[in-house]
Structure formats: structure tokens, C-alpha cells
């Protein structure tokens, strides 16, 4: 993303007197024009970047300028490093930036830095192969950089299929899933699209003007229960399946039932997501109440049993 590249450019310039724009463009896999726009952005931010013309010219920092390493402690740099590592499975940009952050730490403190950075590891990538997701993320990032629209076939959570043209604004990871937030030209408003539901994703040549997003109306900050009817669902796990409950819920949520098992009270909107979540436990979980949720789960489980009983 742009902020990663800007920080990386500053770190490169700190280590070298002059760098050619073409070399920076090749290094970050963007156009020379994009590099010059980045240089202008850095200048507006107060970084004294200058361009020298002529055969021995290039891009550099005003002589005597340096980045005060005391602005960020080793612990703070390690936290940034860990945050970038959590996303590195999806893009090589973060790996390059991680290398540059490591290079800022003096050799005398590198071992301590590695120790701090390894105390907590967050890996947000899913198990197994996720090449298709990486391709979608890369294409959307390109569209974000170039401020052009993307189009794709989309299937909603209700199974409705449409073709969308969207002005991309933000890539969002929420609940271990990637989403694109942008202005949908079909609906004429901002929408949140889940990447796995996209098919035939392409980058279009239609440019758009990016607007400021209202920070108080961003949909990923909303809990669905704030706008939907929430029900309390009581779920029981027997003694033989209590380990499954312990794996999924915090101990403070589990109530001992007196027979070696647990009950847990869930508060969610009663929708297809909730039914899918409850069915994911298989026979280990039994919904005790409310009655209509228990009845609907029984019907769904019976439908599954019929489907497998008649399969060849």
C-alpha cells in the first residue's frame, strides 16, 4: 500500500545519497510517474526530499537530514514489525518493509529486537492454499493505487447473483475474512463486499475521484446486533464434548451443568449465520432454547441426513 511504499522510500534515501527515480520505480514495482507523486507527498509531509538534475543527479534528502531513531523505541518498531508480519502472507510489499524496519535497528540491538518481535506472532492467513485470494488482493491494491474502478460478479449471503462496478476505497480484514469497501455504481452507495464471493474480478480503466470517508459511519465498526433483534440462545455440551466448548469459548462464558458438561448463553441475531455456526459443532452441541431455534436446527439436520442417506 502507499503508506508502506512512502516509508520504504524514506528509509532507502536515508541509506543512500542519491537514487534514480527509475531504480525506485523498479524496486517498488510502480511507474516513474507514481514515484514522483510519492516524492511530492513526502515533501508536503515535511520530509526534505530534493531532485537533482543532470548526469549525476537523482533523488535524495537535503544533506544533514536524518531520521531520529529515538522517535520510535525498539519495542515500538518490533510491534510494527509484528503487525506487518501478520499480513505478509498476502503480499510481498510487507516483507520488503519488514526488512527495511529491521535494518533501522543498530546491529548491537538486533538480537534484542528479534527477541521482542518474536514474543507475539499473529498469522491472519487461512490454513491451506490461498493463491486466488492473493491475486484478488493484489488486483484491488493496484486499482486503489491508480484510483480506477473494479468489476466482478458477486453472490450475496442470500444467494442473489449480480454484476458490480465499484470504486474501491478500503481493504478490510474483519472476522478473519477480507472485504472491499467502496462505492457501488449499481446501488449508488457505499457497500461492503466479501472477497471470496467475488468472481471474474477485473480492473477497469474508469478513473474516479476519491472522497473522504465519514469515520463514524464505517460498517465494519458496527456489530450486527446493534441494528437487529438479538436473542439469547442456550447451548449445551455434554461431558464427552466439553473440550470442544473449551476450544471455542472463553472459560468465563461456560457454566458447569453439574454432570461434567457445560452450558453457554450466546447473544446473536437469529439468522443463517447463526444456524451455520451452531451446525458447525455437529452432534457435540445441543440447543436447549429458544424452542424455535432448536426446532429449525432439527429440521436442517434432518435435511442433511436425508441428503446423505440418498447419496450414491
Automatic annotation (TrEMBL):
Keywords: Transcription, Transcription regulation. The keyword Amino-acid biosynthesis does not apply. InterPro entries: CBASS_pafABC_assoc_protein, DeoR_HTH, HTH_11, PafC-like, WCX_dom, WH-like_DNA-bd_sf, WH_DNA-bd_sf, WYL_dom. GO terms for molecular function: DNA-binding transcription factor activity. Residues 2-59 form the HTH deoR-type domain. This is YafY family transcriptional regulator. It comes from Paenibacillus rhizophilus. The lineage of its organism: Bacteria, Bacillati, Bacillota, Bacilli, Bacillales.
Amino acid at each position: 500500500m502507499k503508506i508502506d511504499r512512502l516509508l520504504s522510500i524514506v528509509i532507502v534515501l536515508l541509506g543512500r545519497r542519491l537514487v534514480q527515480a527509475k531504480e525506485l520505480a523498479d524496486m517498488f514495482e510502480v511507474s516513474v510517474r507514481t514515484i514522483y507523486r510519492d516524492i511530492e507527498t513526502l515533501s508536503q509531509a515535511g520530509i526534505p526530499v530534493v531532485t537533482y538534475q543532470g548526469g549525476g543527479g537523482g533523488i535524495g534528502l537535503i544533506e544533514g537530514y536524518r531520521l531520529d531513531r529515538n522517535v520510535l523505541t525498539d519495542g515500538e518498531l518490533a510491534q510494527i514489525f509484528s503487525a506487518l508480519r501478520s499480513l505478509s502472507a498476502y503480499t510481498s510489499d510487507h516483507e520488503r518493509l519488514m526488512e527495511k524496519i529491521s535494518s533501522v535497528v543498530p546491529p548491537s540491538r538486533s538480537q534484542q529486537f528479534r527477541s521482542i518481535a518474536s514474543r507475539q506472532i499473529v498469522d491472519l492467513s487461512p490454513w491451506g492454499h490461498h493463491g486466488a485470494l492473493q491475486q484478488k488482493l493484489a488486483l484491488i491494491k493496484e486499482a486503489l493505487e491508480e484510483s480506477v474502478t473494479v468489476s466482478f460478479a458477486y453472490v450475496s449471503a442470500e444467494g442473489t447473483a449480480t454484476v458490480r462496478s465499484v470504486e474501491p476505497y478500503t481493504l478490510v480484514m474483519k472476522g478473519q475474512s477480507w472485504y472491499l469497501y467502496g462505492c457501488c455504481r449499481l446501488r449508488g452507495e457505499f457497500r461492503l463486499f466479501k472477497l471470496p464471493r467475488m468472481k471474474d474480478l477485473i480492473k477497469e480503466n474508469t478513473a474516479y475521484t476519491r472522497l473522504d470517508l465519514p469515520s463514524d459511519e464505517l460498517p465494519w465498526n458496527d456489530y450486527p446486533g446493534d441494528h437487529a433483534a438479538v436473542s439469547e440462545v442456550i447451548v449445551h455440551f455434554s461431558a464427552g464434548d466439553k473440550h470442544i466448548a473449551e476450544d471455542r469459548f472463553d472459560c468465563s462464558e461456560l457454566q458447569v451443568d453439574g454432570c461434567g458438561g457445560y452450558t453457554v448463553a450466546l447473544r446473536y441475531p437469529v439468522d443463517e449465520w447463526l444456524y451455520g455456526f451452531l451446525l458447525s459443532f455437529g452432534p457435540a452441541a445441543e440447543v436447549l432454547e429458544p424452542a424455535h431455534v432448536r426446532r429449525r436446527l432439527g429440521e436442517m439436520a434432518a435435511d442433511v441426513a436425508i441428503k446423505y442417506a440418498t447419496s450414491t
